[in-house]
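Is this the right way to post structure tokens for a design question? Let me know if I should format differently. Anyway, here goes:
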């Protein structure tokens, strides 16, 4: 297993389907060891969630969309938010990915929670964003908030991801 570097990322961006589609600016978003993904929509959670051992017992809380103003900005007071990313990711079965928050967010008191992106996943992923800064933050639509790092597997699985989030946000 190894992490892809910029030159390999550019090659995968030319594939069909591309590794990531919907980039605003490849030169800005493709980094030495990953691709920056940006804010598509922001939601305030409504109600509680339920999670058990079996996937069938998992119920996500609904989300109330938080609109951006006419200039494309939103102010987020302290709290927890769900963020749908703007770009669509298409992982082939020989690649998996991990998302990491951009360090600028950490430096302003914002934590971004992420999870593993399984080989074969396709969709517009979601992350959680927790604003700890007592003054909140101003967030622009399409601001880059996470860097997705891609890892090549030594062996490809017989089948890629086929879970409930396949094709999400499309």
């Amino acid at each position: 297993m190894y992490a892809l570097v910029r030159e390999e990322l550019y090659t995968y961006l030319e594939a069909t389907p591309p590794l990531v589609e919907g980039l605003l600016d490849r030169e800005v978003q493709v980094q030495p060891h990953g691709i920056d993904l940006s804010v598509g929509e922001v939601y305030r959670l409504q109600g509680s969630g339920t999670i058990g051992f079996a996937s069938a017992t998992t119920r996500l809380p609904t989300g109330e969309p938080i609109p951006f103003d006419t200039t494309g900005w939103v102010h987020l007071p302290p709290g927890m938010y769900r963020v749908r990313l703007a770009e669509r990711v298409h992982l082939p079965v020989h690649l998996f990915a991990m998302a990491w928050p951009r360090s600028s967010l950490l430096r302003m008191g914002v934590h971004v929670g992420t999870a593993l992106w399984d080989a074969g996943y396709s969709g517009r992923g979601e992350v959680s964003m927790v604003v700890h800064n007592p003054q909140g933050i101003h967030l622009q639509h399409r601001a880059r908030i996470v860097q997705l790092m891609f890892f090549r597997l030594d062996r490809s699985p017989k089948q890629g991801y086929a879970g409930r989030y396949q094709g999400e946000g499309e």
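Format looks fine. Someone answered above. Worth noting: Helices lie at 6-13, 26-29, 103-107. Residues 2-47+59-148 form a domain with the Deoxyuridine 5'-Triphosphate Nucleotidohydrolase; Chain A fold (CATH 2.70.40.10).
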